[in-house]
Specification:
The complex is a heterodimer of chains A (597) and B (158). Chain A is of the alpha/beta class and 597 residues long. Chain B has a four-stranded mixed sheet, with helices on one face. Chain B is elongated and about 50 Å long. In chain B, 37% of the residues are buried. The chains are: A alpha/beta (597), B alpha+beta (158). The structure holds flavin mononucleotide, iron/sulfur cluster (SF4) and FE2/S2 (inorganic) cluster. The site of iron/sulfur cluster has 14 residues of chain A, from helix 18 and helix 20.
Chain lengths: 597, 158
Amino acid sequence: MQIYRGHVLICAGTGCVASGSKKVQAEMANQLEAFNLENDIKIVETGCHGFCEMGPIVIVYPEGIFYCQVKMEDVKEIVEEHLLKGRPVKRLLFRDQMTEEMVPHYRDIDFYKKQNRIVLGNCGFINPENIKEYIARDGYEALAKALTQMTPEQVIDEVKASGLRGRGGGGFPTGLKWQFARDAKGDKKYVICNADEGDPGAFMDRSVLEGDPHALIEGMAIAAYAIGSDEGYIYVRAEYPLAIKRLQIAIAQAHELGLLGKDIFGSGFNFKLNIKEGAGAFVCGEETALIASIEGRRGEPRVRPPFPANKGLWGKPSNVNNVETFANVPRIIAKGSQWYAGMGTEKSKGTKVFALTGKVKNTGLAEVTMGLTLREIIFEIGGGIIDDKKFKAVQIGGPSGGCIPEQLLDLPIDYDSLISAGAMMGSGGLVVMDEDTCMVELARFFLNFTQMESCGKCTPCREGTKIMLDILERITKGEGKEGDIELLESLAKTIKSTSLCGLGQTAPNPVLATLRYFRDEYEAHIKEKRCPAGVCTALASYSILEDKCIGCTACARVCPVNAISGEVKKPHKIDPAKCIKCGACAQACKFNAIVKK
Amino acid sequence: MGKCCCGSDCQDSRFTEILEQYKGKDGVLIPVLQKAQEIKGYLPEETIRAIADYFNKPYSEVYGVATFYAQFRLKPSGENIIRVCAGTACHVRGGKKILDKVCSELNVAPGETSADGKFSLEPVACLGACGLAPVMMINDTTYGRLTPEKVTEILAKY
Ligand SMILES: Cc1cc2nc3c(=O)[nH]c(=O)nc-3n(C[C@H](O)[C@H](O)[C@H](O)COP(=O)(O)O)c2cc1C
Ligand code: SF4
Ligand code: FES
């Protein structure tokens, strides 16, 4: 084997590829050759580091120097200065948002300091398309241990004792779920991985699939052994083509090494894995809908019981878990339940990966020990709000969850604390909102989503969400009426209690949560016809501040409806009758002379 | 192999091969529709009928599946497919402005194809690149950290 004196890790996750990492990689190969370094330095294409905001990310080992937002033009300098002469390129180092100081090492960056990367431990450090790199980091040891030293019951007991709960949203104890599937009678059983990741704003499952696919495969194989199954399905959403490709490669490589297939580790245990591509339907994340979709039908949920553990795919006992849930399993088996249960809160053990997005400085994936507070995640890992604006709320749990306002930021997060605050863990999407977000409009946004994604099977969900959406649309257009809030509340109650599946049962949550914490905003829209955040276009009006306008005519030129008039070098005026409130003028004005009210 | 059985009189044997590949297997409807769409760009009625006949299923069932999932198109699409993310992370970072800009630049509404047949605009809920919000995808290329000005620049490339 060839030994290299250094490695250049280049992120090939979706975020960094979108920022141009493929070009950086090609240029790196060119430059290494130009400087005759191709036999000294090896390029490793890795999965996501989670810090997508700063991409493309390049890390140079052995020093562990972390370069961010690297462009093609920067590559020559990295090769010449750093790789050849040993002088890291200072201008490409990460700069701390607060102190402006340069932070050369990965581990010292605030974004990573408070994290506890277990599930994401390999992401960004190994080449996901090479099984040997996974094995070099103790990969498939847990499967060997389970198959050769443990009985299926012992595996289940270990998972139970670890306190692991489902990361797909519900938080059901994983060990117990496995027990049900093991106890179910049947000659054929299935293990199914839910990789549908439908919550818009969450991308942690994607990062595991793209950055460490073998962790999922190993976790599924262990689950299969525990419940007595010999075949599994991974249901991946079609929007994730790279994840599908990496999984295919990983499965083929595992087969080649005998880690999937027949008589694994000489234990007599067989396991075969199939990939099923979704076709774009949020409701297919619901487990019974997902099973229907694998069977090739419309993805409509059905009544439970019978639960999939008893009657699942093709009517056989099946165990459905989320990607992150499975990815935790090898670590638990390898290091023991005691270790795992030592982390977290009383009822929520281990870590959770959150997708930190929205108006936060450091967007990306943050894996933290359960029980950390939202404030720590948003302000320490996330670095606070963009442009140092005021924090307003954070949406957690996606369209099924709720918003958490400022006064609850010190809440230690676990499954149960979030439920009592009117939100839920969900997939772990955290969308941060600042003072410029209108909470009524946000509720409208979520209802629009759930209403479109409702499968239409039950009336309360299909029609009820439509009516709620209509009301919210009216309110944001300034046509809200006395009694609308009460009507929303009563509809919400009915929809929650009479819908069949989780989609309908949770669809009203964003409305209820915003009503709980921001009722005054609803009232301002309805009674005063005013949008306090200045978002709702119909309620806004634009005007020009005479003392600030220098008459540059920039606004008049961009206005699509010629609503602005005035002489050059004299203050301009907007004709409210013509104005369509598109805001183009405010964007064009360089003197902040145009205000929106 | 031989003549195509997709219903139209095209000479494409790939479609027949797909049907044969999935013959007699369970739960194949979605992958067959996906592969058929890959070849044809969309699912014409005669293709749906041909699939229903081949797998001995009622037309209504196959049609029901094809219309349930957002991925399937029953109308031909434009040369390039633009997907503007309408997910939460993009929404709070101004995704609507990006969508509006694309609509006005191309003079299309979401779900439509531009008059010159060059672009189809499809809204999508999250492309999984939320860290770079707002995001859009043209064919297989993802564009992040968008502004309305960047949209104009990007569209000009196609
Ligand atoms: C509308 C709806 C969408 C869901 N989407 C997902 C999803 O995208 N990913 C996921 O893992 N679970 C999703 N779930 C939860 C699944 O039904 C199921 O509980 C989960 O996959 C079980 O895995 P776990 O125990 O490991 O969490 C969804 C549930 C509902 C009701
Ligand atoms: S609650 Fe909504 S999504 Fe769920 S089964 Fe009923 S109609 Fe379908
Ligand atoms: S919300 Fe737009 S990419 Fe995820």
